[in-house]
Amino acid sequence: MRWRYLRHIVRKYSKDNNRFHVGIVGAGPAGFYCAQQLLKTIPGCQIDIYEKLPVPFGLVRYGVAPDHPEVKNVINTFSKTASNEHVRFIGNVTLGRHITLAQLKHSYHAVVLAYGAEEDRKLNINGECLTNVVSATKFIGWYNGQPQNKNIKVDLNAEHAVIIGQGNVALDVARILLTPVDILRKTDITEYSLEALAKSKVKKVTLVGRRGPLQVAFTIKEFREMLKLPAVSTNFYEGQMNTIENVIGDLPRPRKRLMQLMYDASQKLESRGDKSFDILFYRTPISLLGSDKIEGIELAINRLEGDKAVITNEKYTLKCDLAFRSIGYRSIQADPDIPFNRASSIVPQSTGIYSVGWLSSGPIGVIVSTMSNAFQTASLIGKDFEKGLLSDNPKPGYSYISKILKDKDRITIDWNGWTKIDRVEIERGMKRGKPREKIVNVDEMLKIGGT
Amino acid sequence: MSIKLFKYVTNFCIKSRVLMKYNLSTSNNEKLIKVTFNKANGEKVTAEGKKGDSLLDVIVNNNLDFDGFGACEGTLTCSTCHVILNQKNYDELPEKPSDEELDMLDLAYNLTDTSRLGCQIVLEEKLDGLEVNVPATVNDARNWPTFHISRHKTFYGFFPSCNIIVYTVFDIFYSS
Ligand SMILES: Cc1cc2nc3c(=O)[nH]c(=O)nc-3n(C[C@H](O)[C@H](O)[C@H](O)COP(=O)(O)OP(=O)(O)OC[C@H]3O[C@@H](n4cnc5c(N)ncnc54)[C@H](O)[C@@H]3O)c2cc1C
Fold this sequence. Notes:
The structure holds two protein chains of two kinds. By secondary structure, chain A is of the alpha/beta class.
């Protein structure tokens, strides 16, 4: 045992490390943060990052709202990692379609799955396929220029939009719908969505949640932004905020500050403009109504039992002409060999096959939580490596996978290819006074950056 | 074995010399202000910065290796540069935290009443010798509730008593 340990210490500081190959699937924050940390825990290891899309950064590019450019600063750190001589980016390659887990296991000493949680959860109630019932995920993908969502149908010639869900994603959708277009024009939002939003008739957005104010999932920064939106009044329903006044004092500081802010907002009655942002608690959608297009939502009134919402027999209809579901994400099993936990839709850790980010933690937390999760897994991999749990045999790394991709005539994008796309996007953006104009067509990306 | 190690050590020495030189050259006319960071693992790191630098600048300019520190690069959109001061230093800082800073601090792990974000603490001469604690982050497994247990239980269980923030979790309850 001791000898084994010694051997690994030797290996840790020897040239042999260069032969320790790690394959990461998914170039979002989790993949990049894991790579960044692995370069430290196993100095000299070779890391290959595979990405389904031609372009990197996952939800930082396609999830984070265009009016939150500061959040995207993490891209600078990711780019630094990607420029390391031991890191290779391979875009336009999907695990489960172009390569399999078995092939990755054959090529790498450790495989790290970092492909996120892309599927959105459905309400599973009647009327979900009516026109203008839109998944928040897709809508966000649409305004952020995600290739697969660039053509989704959403008719903004609607007065009242209802968003089902009370997390930060729901607030992102509400904020984009209610922000004056001239503010959005200066962001990297796609041009076609700007055009659509400029014609939008949406005057009122209602955020519906099953439970009460104490259980909201959104965070204070995002809520404060709603209060500051020009010409938008934030409204609560009568009687729904009174109850919290007495408990605010006993809450831990973060909740206390959020509840106080919400309570204070509920006490302000003056109108700030002709648009409104309403928050409705204790309601469960029973069915979406309408013959072809959505006309309203049948809601059941809930009662709280402890922290749980319980449906009562009381129901009524909330009229609307646009509805979004924003009730969370779910990971999929990208390849049948992945040790996937169906009950929780996550991939647990196993020696040799690791998971990081939303695929590992579930679709929760901000980028920083994803970072911590990735750092932790990277140190687990480092420990497994030091203990000698990962194969000592030489592995082919990318040379094996690249042959497979070549045989399939798959065009790939390397980091240099991405920087070309990046430059074109920034140039196009400059012409419009934006930080960038995203390319939304995969073929065009491949033409610019493909090899 | 040793070539790599040797290279690493030499590189490190060269780097730190360059750094020292850099610091010396900028210090000609300006007094440097000393700050000590007490890391959660017991390590003490002392570094210097100029008047007007933030604590985050000090860490970045000195190439200090604080994992994940300053993820948003000082734009008040994350809480990775969370530091804890003693009451006296906290009270003496000229700028009180803004609502926006407090909003981000609310998401920090191990939040205390004397917590600040390093990017918002600006050095001035009277702060020379300042010591701050860099709290354990979630990287420290002891402080990290495991994520791999049932999601319902996790979030029910730890939410009110813990500062971990939740992006959309509660929404998930709809689908179950
Ligand atoms: C709408 C929205 C807004 C958000 N806003 C913020 C914010 O303002 N601030 C904040 O801190 N956090 C925000 N977050 C949270 C943050 O985006 C996540 O914490 C983080 O992106 C999760 O990282 P990840 O790498 O696990 O997943 P992802 O970012 O989803 O990355 C996964 C990557 O894997 C790729 N992939 C998927 N399948 C495959 C496959 N089969 N083969 C190869 N590659 C594949 C995907 O294309 C993607 O690039 C937001 C999240 C959402 C959904």
